[in-house]
Amino acid sequence: MDEGCVLVGTDFSPGAAAALEEARRLAARLGCPVHVVHVVESEAPQDWRPTGREQGWLSEAELDEASLHVRFGAAWAELARYADRCRPAMLVVGSHGASGYQPVSVGTTAERLTLNARHSVLLVGPRHSASRRPAEAGRS
To answer: 63 in the Ramachandran plot: left (φ > 0), alpha (ψ -120 to 50) or beta?
Structure first.
């Protein structure tokens, strides 16, 4: 494990893509690697292979399957457990994932992770985009 890495969780959603983008910028500034973790919500480890949509997400993110750390269990718990092992400089997650629109909360995984992780957590909102110029950042 790389102590001081930037750890990013992915569910292959647009929010996770924005979180990965932010994690990469942060890691470049800190001079450390990015660990990308996907959690399969299953109690028993199994052979996992990305679906076509997930493979497309990985390709667009310029990641290969071998660079993805796959864990099994509850997403927030496994991300926190992985963070305890690698002691990241920052844990980055999208505030809304594949579970859909939730107007009151930030999303179950992000919410639980923020409340339970022993490391700093950066939540990246769904409107985040590095391609937006600073003058455009305040516009919706």
So the answer is: beta
**String of DSSP letters for 38-60:** EEE--SS-------HHHHHHHHH
Q: Token digits for 91? A: 């844990």
pLDDT value at 131 more than 70: no
Does 7 have pLDDT greater than 60? yes
Nearest-5° angle of CA 33, CA 96, CA 126? Answer: 80
Alpha helix segments (H runs only) across 1-140: 14-30, 52-60, 75-86, 108-116, 134-137
Predicted pLDDT at 23: 95
Amino acid sitting at position 132: R
d(CA 14, CA 33): 22
**CA distance readout (Å), 34 to 47, 69, 110, 111:** 24, 11, 18, 22
Q: What is the mean pLDDT of residues 87-97?
A: 82
Check: pTM over 0.90? Answer yes or no: no
